[in-house]
Structure formats: structure tokens, C-alpha cells
Amino acid sequence: MMDLSNMSVGDLRNLQEQIKQEMKKREVQEVQKAREQILAIAQSVGVPLKDLLATSGRSSSKGNTVAVRYRHPDNASQQWTGRGRQPKWVKEWVEGGQSIDKLRV
Questions:
Q1: CA-closest candidate to residue 52, choices 30, 62, 37, 32
Q2: What's this model's pTM, rounded to 2 decimal places?
Q3: Would you put residue 14 in left (φ > 0), alpha (ψ -120 to 50) or beta?
Q4: Is 102 in contact with 89 (CB distance < 8 Å)?
């Protein structure tokens, strides 16, 4: 274990930069190693890698849209799916004493 208490601020900054560089290098090495392992698995079962990745069995969530569940009664362009944080207009509506159910589509 390295004793950092006796190092100057400059030495610590230099060490920090060396650590950043080493981390980047190792991350690249780990990704390369993972790719090689995946390729080896694909080759061992006789499946081209592109086919292995294409038939993952999961449906892609890209392109799937979520239905709008709430819409502002006076401005149809203000809509919300009900997921994630409430938009500002929904918060203002509720804080104004209105029921969120009145916004439900």
C-alpha cells in the first residue's frame, strides 16, 4: 500500500493522472478481452457472431412508444405518458387543487 500522506499536491495530481491513464488502458483491454471471449463462444457453437447477436430472443424496446395517459385540456400539445417525473404543467395542475384524473385520456 502506498503512503499518500507524505506526497505533495503536485505529486498527487501526477499520480491521479497516471491512474486515469492506466484505468483507460485497462478498460480498453477488458473490452477487447470480452470481445475475444464472445467471438470464441460463437465460434465454438458454429454460429456467426452477427447471428448470435441478432437472435437474442428479446424484443427491442427501440421504436416502441408508450401511450399518452394524460393531456392538458386546454393545450393538447402538453401530454404525458405517466412515466418518469411529472411535467411542470401536471405539477402546477395538481398544486392548483385540480385532480390529476381530469387530465387522464
A1: 37
A2: 0.42
A3: alpha
A4: no
